[in-house]
Each structure stands twice: as structure tokens, then as C-alpha cells.
From TrEMBL:
<dbReference type="GO" id="GO:0016614">
    <property type="term" value="F:oxidoreductase activity, acting on CH-OH group of donors"/>
</dbReference>
<comment type="similarity">
    <text>Belongs to the GMC oxidoreductase family.</text>
</comment>
<dbReference type="InterPro" id="IPR012132">
    <property type="entry name" value="GMC_OxRdtase"/>
</dbReference>
<feature type="domain" description="Glucose-methanol-choline oxidoreductase N-terminal">
    <location>
        <begin position="304"/>
        <end position="318"/>
    </location>
</feature>
<keyword id="KW-0274">FAD</keyword>
<feature type="signal peptide">
    <location>
        <begin position="1"/>
        <end position="20"/>
    </location>
</feature>
<dbReference type="InterPro" id="IPR007867">
    <property type="entry name" value="GMC_OxRtase_C"/>
</dbReference>
<feature type="active site" description="Proton donor">
    <location>
        <position position="526"/>
    </location>
</feature>
<feature type="binding site">
    <location>
        <position position="264"/>
    </location>
    <ligand>
        <name>FAD</name>
    </ligand>
</feature>
<dbReference type="InterPro" id="IPR036188">
    <property type="entry name" value="FAD/NAD-bd_sf"/>
</dbReference>
<dbReference type="GO" id="GO:0050660">
    <property type="term" value="F:flavin adenine dinucleotide binding"/>
</dbReference>
<keyword id="KW-0732">Signal</keyword>
<protein>
    <submittedName>
        <fullName>Aryl-alcohol oxidase-like protein</fullName>
    </submittedName>
</protein>
<dbReference type="Pfam" id="PF00732">
    <property type="entry name" value="GMC_oxred_N"/>
</dbReference>
<feature type="binding site">
    <location>
        <begin position="122"/>
        <end position="125"/>
    </location>
    <ligand>
        <name>FAD</name>
    </ligand>
</feature>
<feature type="active site" description="Proton acceptor">
    <location>
        <position position="570"/>
    </location>
</feature>
<dbReference type="InterPro" id="IPR000172">
    <property type="entry name" value="GMC_OxRdtase_N"/>
</dbReference>
Length: 591
């Protein structure tokens, strides 16, 4: 145990020499035995930060990927997409299995190979979801602690509301009463404006208020309507789990170590504890050698919706028959591991516009691009502080008499939750000209997919099946969503501005439209559910409501994979609150 005095000396020592305890080399790691070993994550750094608030607790984070430090594309909001190149150094380079709902297409599936997990490369959209989403989690798990009202303080705890980089007047664009001011993750409204586009969006909420009411803050738990996007950006830079929860003041703690390039294969060293199996160590590959990091209190898997089920399966936690066929001895027969994956799918609609106030004025003009970079580099202002997913978002519902409901009962968690998201993007299809796009997302899917392993080799690439548009419900619903997007642009606000669509969807018959959807739907990259929470004693599920893996001692999952169904929201805010509450649940048990 480290004494508090030593800890204080340690902090002084490390800060005075700028020492950083994110280790690049396993040989530099001071030891291989900790109270807690955390694997990966957006969520994992949150857990590591909170547990090491107690100086007598030691934590090691094992991350397979590389450091986020000094990667310009991970700092400049406008350039974030450059990190997503599937074969690049910052991606796991995953590809889905052939998607039956997408005419057998396989598509690349983005996952960050970076400290901070996907929060280091994502679109930075900050959306919490609906009250109904969390109230459904509480109902499914039998734990009121997951309800919106009880989770709400954790949203505030993660968040540091920050003025936008352009310091524009934000009155009416958000509700200050529902935001945190002292958390590690900066959240702000956009620090760069596209006035020609934005004023038309707001004007449409006045011209078509029945279908598209203005919502002054979509993060209140009542997201329905159209409003200003909030992003995990502070002072013009991306704010991530790595920059926030591992900021210098935290990573200098002598009881917190992070090792990069540590690819975890499986959990090892099973013993019995009060009639339950317990793993004593985490095996990982560094370079070409295998190592074991021991955890005396708990192992915490935060490897995300793909990595976590993969590690569980590699360790003999999963469906017995499947494991047996791969030659992996079963430790606990848990058939739900890797099942019930749910994810969003998006469809882009693009129009030419009679305006040069679009992203193309920068992306297609090398002079402006370089000027924008210099401006960002010298003052953290200008177009490069803009996060490219959009200026506004709308959260919409199917019509009450939608034919989709003849196929399946309403999959949304309640009348206050959306079926769709529409993102308003001031750019187009990467061809010369000026464009806008409406990205229509199906955010309450009926389809359920899976993450599986195909080999007893723990380093083999897992099989990802997000099952996009596998259910007819999702197809019919998305088609209705596309019509809502088209309707939005019929408002008078768009007259004289809107040119031709790049693909004339409206001219197609329904059969052709469905073919077009299946041929072009994009991944939402929001997979959850593959290590789902369920009520204690339920016949399905992977973890109990306290995030402990069912039937095992000393092992928790704390990441997006525990969410039973995908929320009607981008998933990082939900991931942060799972992590914050998860850390509290660990602390409660050990004090
Ligand atoms: C391209 C993209 C854009 C997105 N945009 C947004 C957005 O704009 N807004 C939003 O709210 N959400 C967005 N998301 C989703 C959001 O970022 C994720 O839901 C969230 O970050 C998930 O966090 P996590 O902790 O569950 O897992 P992850 O962030 O996936 O972290 C898992 C970590 O574990 C590591 N790991 C995995 N396996 C192993 C192993 N075997 N050994 C060691 N380490 C391992 C990985 O390298 C990774 O760092 C986006 C996601 C993607 C991919
Ligand atoms: C990425 O995956 C593709 C196939 O899915 C493969 O051809 C390519 O070599 C992989 N790249 C890297 C860097 O692993
Ligand atoms: C296995 O666990 C036991 C008890 O926790 C420990 O003493 C031993 O060192 C561990 N062995 C390995 C190889 O990790
Ligand atoms: C998937 O989740 C549903 C509840 O939403 C549950 O009834 C079902 O058993 C789960 N399936 C698996 C394989 O876990
Ligand atoms: C856009 O067009 C206006 C005139 O219509 C012009 O003044 C302005 O410089 C142009 N901006 C860019 C970025 O091309
Ligand atoms: C490119 O940007 C520069 C600098 O803003 C501007 O002077 C020029 O007109 C732009 N070119 C085009 C084709 O818009
Ligand atoms: C950004 O500015 C710094 C000086 O402040 C300079 O050293 C660096 O080269 C600039 N980066 C780029 C890519 O121009
Ligand atoms: C839709 O259009 C296609 C031609 O592109 C045609 O073959 C098909 O019969 C049409 N379907 C209906 C229902 O009109």
C-alpha cells in the first residue's frame, strides 16, 4: 500500500519532471499486481480515475491501442473523420459479416485503437437519450439506480459546460440548468457557424412546428424536436475520456498506471471463491510475448461492445455448445454473451445548394483549408473547431398509425423517446460543388445482431453482425424517416436555396427506394447490448444490475455493452454515466 505522504511526494516529483505514467513499454511498468485491472475503454479511464481517488487503491489500465497524445486529427474537431480510415493505425479495421438486410453487403465497422477508446475518434455529438430509455433500463434490470432520475446526477458529474470557441451568444440554444460545470468532459455548442444553413433549420421549426418543433435543449430527458447540437469539445479541442479522465492531474497519481500496446487475450488463473469461479489475472500480449497482470480485488472489462464479449468468450464465459465446438473449456455457461447487439443505422440524403456557406468551401479550397488550420493552430478558433456530424439534430417519432406497427409492436421505450434522429450537415458527397445532407438514423431498431468468435485463437478477428435492417420493421420505419427528412425541406425557408438532390429518391417507387436503402445504409457505430444487464436471476443476460458478471466472482463489465437496448441517442454520454455509476458500485462494495 502507498502511504498518502508518498503519494503527495510522488505527484510533486512527477509533475516537476513532466513524467507521464502512460507506459509505452511493458518493461517500464513498476509491477504486474494491482487491486484492479481495467481493460480498455472510453469507460475504463473513468473507472480508473474514480477508483484511484482513494490513494490506497491501485489500478492498471491495459489498452491495446496507441496513445492519443500528439495526434492532430484527434485534437482538431473538423479532422476527426481522418482517424476512421479502416486500415489506418488508429482503427481495429473491423468488417461486418455479410448483412442480410443490406443485400449481403459487408461494411467496415469503426472502433478506435486509441487510448480513450472511441471517445478519441468519435463524432463528439453529446446526447444523453430520453428519460424513457433509462426508465426502461431500470425496469429491465429491476434496479431503480438505472432510472433517469437517479442517473441524472452522473450526467452532471461527467460534464463541464464550456463556452463555444467563438463566444457567440448562446441564449436560447441550450438550458444551463441541466448541465454540469465541474466534470472532466467539456461540452459546448459549436464554436463555428454556418449561418446560411442554420437560420433555415430554425426557420423550419417555426414554419412546420407540428412535425418539427424547436427543442431548446435535447439533453433534458425530453429530446423530441429539433435543436442545436452539443459536442464534447472544450476551447476548440476534442474532449475525450483520455484528455478528460486521464488529464495530468489524474495520471500523475502514483496509484494509477496505464499500459499501451497491451492486447488482452483472456482471463486466467481460475480459483473458487464462495462457490463461484474467480479469475486472478488478465493475460495480454505485448510485442510477441504474453504477460499476466494480477488483480487482487476485481477485473473490470471496459473493452467495448466488441472487445468485451470477445474476451469473455475467449475466457470460457459464454454459450457452452459454441465454446465446446471451439475447444474452449466452459467456465460459466452464459448463452447471452455476444447476443442481442443493437445498433443504429443511418441513410444520407444530399442536395446541391445555392450557397457557398458549406464545408466544401474549406475542404475543396486548399488555401482556405490551410488558413483554417493555421487559425486553429494559433487560436483554437475558426472552422476547424466545428464537429462534422452536424449543426443541429432532430429526434422524431413514427406516425401513430405507421404500417410499421403492423409488423412489430413499438420498439421505442415510450412516447417521449424517438424512433429517428436526423442530423443536419452542411456538406455533401465529396464531389465538387456546395451541398447539404440530412442524415436520417433509425434509432429504435427491432433488429438484433451479435458478436462471436470463430476460433480458439484469442487474437483471431471476431465476427461482427450488427444485423442492420434485418427486421422489416426497421426498413419500413427508415423509409418513413426518409420521408420526414424530405418534408423538412419543403418548408418555405429552403426556397431559392435548395438545388437538386444527388439521388432523386422521391422519384423512385417503394421497391426501388427499399433497394436504395439496403444498398446505402451506413453503420451508426453505436453498438450496445453484447454483455447486457438483466435482472438478478433472469434467464438471460450477462451482468447483474451491479455490473458483476453472472455466476463469477471478482469480474465486472463497465462499458456500453451492458446497455440492454441502444438508447435513442449517440452512445458516449450513456457510456460515461454507466462508467461513473459502475465506479460507485465498485467503491460501495469495497468500503
Ligand atoms: C466512428 C464513431 C463515431 C461515433 N460518434 C459518436 C458521437 O458523435 N457521439 C457519441 O455519443 N457517440 C459516438 N460514438 C459511440 C461512442 O463513442 C461509443 O459508444 C463509446 O465510446 C463506447 O465506449 P466503450 O467504453 O464501451 O468502448 P470503446 O470506446 O470501444 O473502448 C474500448 C477500448 O478497449 C480497447 N480494447 C478492445 N479490446 C481490447 C483487448 N482485447 N485488449 C486491450 N484493449 C482492448 C480498444 O482499443 C478501445 O480503446 C461513435 C463511435 C464511433 C466508432
Ligand atoms: C484490414 O482488413 C482488410 C480486410 O477486411 C484486410 O485486407 C487488410 O489487410 C486489413 N488491414 C490491416 C492494416 O490490418
Ligand atoms: C494465481 O492466483 C493465486 C491466488 O490468487 C496467486 O497466488 C498466483 O500467483 C496466481 N498465479 C498466476 C500465474 O497468476
Ligand atoms: C435478448 O433480450 C431480450 C430482452 O430484451 C431477452 O428476452 C432475450 O432472452 C435476450 N436474448 C439473449 C440471447 O440474451
Ligand atoms: C461566397 O460568395 C460570396 C458572394 O456570393 C463571396 O463574397 C464570398 O467570398 C464567398 N465565400 C467563399 C468562402 O467562397
Ligand atoms: C479559396 O479561398 C481563398 C481564400 O479564402 C479565396 O480567396 C478564393 O477565392 C477561394 N477560391 C474559390 C474557388 O472559392
Ligand atoms: C502549429 O503551431 C506550432 C507553433 O505554435 C508549430 O510549431 C507547428 O508546426 C504548427 N503545426 C502545423 C501542422 O503547422
Ligand atoms: C418499380 O420500378 C421498377 C423499375 O425500376 C419496376 O420494375 C417495378 O415494377 C416498379 N414497382 C412498382 C410496384 O411499381
Amino acid at each position: 500500500m502507498l502511504s498518502p505522504t508518498l503519494t503527495i511526494l510522488g505527484v510533486l516529483f512527477f509533475s516537476s519532471v513532466g513524467f507521464c505514467k502512460v507506459y509505452e513499454d511493458v518493461a517500464d511498468l513498476p509491477r504486474l499486481r494491482y487491486d484492479y485491472v481495467v481493460v480498455g475503454g472510453t469507460a475504463g479511464n473513468v473507472v480508473a480515475n474514480r477508483l484511484t481517488e482513494n490513494p490506497s487503491v491501485s489500478v492498471l489500465v491495459l489498452e491495446a491501442g496507441v496513445s492519443n497524445e500528439g495526434i492532430v486529427d484527434a485534437e482538431v474537431p473538423f479532422l476527426g473523420n481522418d482517424l476512421l480510415t479502416p486500415t489506418g493505425p488508429y482503427s481495429w479495421n473491423y468488417t461486418t459479416t455479410p448483412q442480410t438486410g443490406l443485400n449481403g453487403r459487408t461494411i467496415s465497422y469503426a472502433r478506435a485503437y486509441l487510448l480513450g477508446g472511441c471517445s478519441s475518434h468519435n463524432g463528439m455529438v453529446y446526447t444523453r437519450g430520453a428519460k424513457d430509455d433509462f426508465d426502461r433500463y431500470a425496469k429491465l434490470t429491476g434496479d431503480e439506480g438505472w432510472s433517469w432520475d437517479q442517473i441524472f446526477p452522473y450526467f452532471l458529474k461527467t460534464e463541464k459546460w464550456t463556452p463555444p470557441a467563438d463566444h457567440h451568444d448562446t441564449r436560447g440554444q441550450f438550458n444551463p440548468r441541466i448541465h454540469g460545470t465541474a466534470g472532466p468532459i467539456s461540452v459546448s455548442l459549436s464554436g463555428f457557424q454556418w449561418p446560411d444553413f442554420q437560420r433555415r433549420i430554425i426557420q423550419t421549426t417555426e414554419e412546420l412546428p407540428h412535425d418539427f418543433p424547436f427543442n431548446s435543449d435535447m439533453n433534458s430527458g425530453q429530446p423530441l424536436g429539433v435543436g442545436w447540437v452539443q459536442s464534447t469539445i472544450g476551447h476548440g479541442e476534442r474532449s475525450s475520456s483520455a484528455t478528460g479522465y486521464l488529464a495530468p492531474g489524474y495520471i500523475q497519481r502514483t496509484n494509477l498506471d496505464v499500459l499501451l500496446h497491451a492486447h488482452v487475450s483472456k482471463l486466467v488463473n481460475v480459483t473458487q471463491q464462495q462457490g463461484k469461479p474467480r479469475f486472478g489475472g488478465v493475460q495480454f500480449r505485448y510485442g510477441t510475448s504474453l504477460f499476466v497482470a494480477e488483480a487482487s480485488k476485481e477485473i473490470i472489462l471496459s473493452a467495448g461492445s466488441i472487445g468485451t464479449p470477445q474476451i469473455l468468450l475467449n475466457s470460457g464465459i459464454g454459450d457452452h455448445n459454441t465454446l465446446h465446438a471451439l475447444g474452449i473449456p466452459t467456465v460459466v455457461d452464459l448463452p447471452s454473451v455476444g447476443q442481442n447487439a443493437s445498433d443504429h443505422s443511418y441513410f444520407a440524403l444530399t442536395w446541391a445548394v445555392n450557397s457557398n456557406d458549406t464545408m466544401e468551401s474549406i475542404t475543396q479550397n486548399a488555401t482556405r483549408f490551410n488558413e483554417a488550420f493555421d487559425q486553429w493552430n494559433t487560436s483554437r478558433t475558426g472552422p476547424f473547431v466545428f464537429a462534422t456530424p452536424g449543426t443541429h439534430a432532430g429526434w422524431l417519432r413514427l406516425s401513430a398509425d405507421s404500417p410499421a406497427f403492423e409488423i412489430h409492436p413499438d420498439p421505442s421505450p415510450g412516447y417521449g423517446a424517438p424512433h429517428f434522429e436526423v442530423l443536419f450537415v452542411p456538406s455533401g458527397a465529396g464531389v465538387p460543388g456546395h451541398f447539404i445532407s440530412l442524415l436520417m438514423g433509425m434509432v429504435s431498431p427491432v433488429s438484433r445482431g451479435s458478436v462471436a468468435i470463430s476460433s480458439g485463437d484469442p487474437f483471431a478477428v471476431p465476427l461482427l453482425d450488427p444485423a442492420y435492417l434485418a427486421s422489416e420493421f426497421d426498413v419500413i420505419a427508415l423509409l418513413e424517416g426518409v420521408k420526414l427528412a424530405q418534408k423538412f425541406l419543403t418548408a418555405p425557408a429552403w426556397q431559392g436555396y435548395l438545388g437538386a438532390p444527388t439521388v432523386d429518391f422521391a422519384a423512385m417507387n417503394t421497391t426501388e427506394q427499399v433497394v436504395n436503402l439496403r444498398a446505402n445504409v451506413l453503420s451508426g457505430s453505436h453498438m450496445v447490448g453484447t454483455a447486457s444487464m438483466s435482472a438478478r436471476g433472469a434467464k438471460y443476460g450477462v451482468v447483474d444490475p451491479d455490473l458483476k458478471v453472472k455466476g463469477i466472482a471478482g469480474l465486472r463489465v463497465i462499458d456500453a455493452s451492458v446497455l440492454p437496448t441502444v438508447p435513442g441517442a449517440h452512445t458516449q454520454a450513456a457510456t460515461y454515466v454507466v462508467a461513473e455509476r459502475g465506479a460507485d458500485l465498485v467503491k460501495q462494495m469495497w468500503t
